[in-house]
Amino acid sequence: MSGIVQPWKIGVIVDSFRVGVREGLVKAKNVGADGVQIYAVKGEMDPANLSATARKQWREYIDSLGLQISALVGDLGGHGFQDKHENAAKIEKSKRILDLAVELGTNVVTTHIGIVPEDSEGEVYETMHLACDELSRYATSMNAYFAIETGPETSVRLRGFLDGLSSKGVSVNFDPANMVMVTGDDPVQGVYTLKDYIVHTHAKDGIRLREVDPRQIYGALGFEPLDHDKLAEQAESGDAFREVPLGEGSVDWDRYLKALRDIGYNGYLTIEREVGTNPDTDIATAVRFLKGTI
Fold it and tell me: Is the pTM of this model over 0.85?
């Protein structure tokens, strides 16, 4: 790249503080974050629970703190979009979350879609493709994105799936830790592979303890569905992988951030901390780590 290199903005997932949205927003401001990502599937930020007045009030409150919203979390869990019998309701819910995102000033909703199967000719692949193509068209019509979180499959397989969609309305939320923890994929090479699709990133770190079938972690048809609480338990004390503080895991941050620079990524580095007993300290440390690195 040429010209002046702009610093990345640092975000924090508000729910990582585990204190509710309003207090979490204040904590994010206090640790020096530029923006926040907010869980919008259920609870107080579920689109179904927010009137037009409430949406306006939330946006005004976030603006008053000097924060931006980097993205909303719209991950519906379960089997993602692998089960054709569930997809109509999940697609509708996802669209309403994206509507809310745009109203709140962001054009990104991050999600898991289920593991992209190896067999691109199979029924599950086709089911996921049809659902994601509909979501992609809807997002593109709003100049927005559903951003798939990396990790359940290799970057090469994900790239192939994305290339088959009719638009880039379904793109990528790049999480380097998920890759090193579960598939053992190289995040640096993953950035170059997915360079045309990365619209948001998570700043997280981890280590892989042993090889594991991703379907046992992220769920799939024929396996248990994705359960975020169980995923967090595994990340904290499981025998397959561990989430660790930034800079203490297997993500090579210097090379990873250089790769993001190389592809011209200028979006958020949003801190996600799903484990640990002292999230305030961990997140503040992560903010300092990123500011010292970028």
Answer: yes
Name the phi and psi angles at 122, rounded to 5: -85, 170
> What single-letter DSSP state applies at residue 252?
-
User: What angle (nearest 5°) sits at the alpha carbon of residue 149, between those of residues 200 and 19?
Assistant: 80
CA distance 66 to 120: 45
Nearest to 209 by CA among 240, 178, 180: 240
For CA atoms 89, 142, 198, 235, the dihedral sign is: negative
Element spanning 174, H or E? strand 170-174
DSSP run (H or E) holding 96: helix 87-104
For tokens 């190389």, what's the residue? 262
What are the pLDDT digits (tens) for 231-242?
A: 888 888 889 999
The pLDDT tens digits for 19-71 are 999 999 999 999 999 999 999 999 999 999 999 999 999 999 999 999 999 99
Q: What angle do CA 36, 146, 150 make, to 5 degrees?
A: 80
Cα separation, 177 vs 159, whole angstroms:
18
**What is the reported pLDDT for 274?**
85
Can you list the pairs that 153-157 forms with residues at least 24 positions away whose Cβ atoms lie under 8 Å?
A: 153/115, 153/116, 153/183, 153/214, 154/183, 154/185, 154/190, 155/179, 155/185, 155/189, 155/190, 155/193, 155/194, 156/193, 157/116, 157/118
Q: Which residue has the tokens 């895991």?
A: 249
- What span, in angstroms and rounded, lies between the C-alpha atoms of 106 and 99? 10
Q: How far is 293 from 205, CA to CA, in rounded Å? A: 14
Given a cut of 90, is residue 132 above it in pLDDT? Answer: yes
* Alpha-carbon gap, residue 274 to 16, rounded angstroms: 6
| Cα–Cα distance, 6 to 195 (Å, whole number) | 18
Burial of 101 (0-12, 13-18, 19+ CB in 10 A): buried
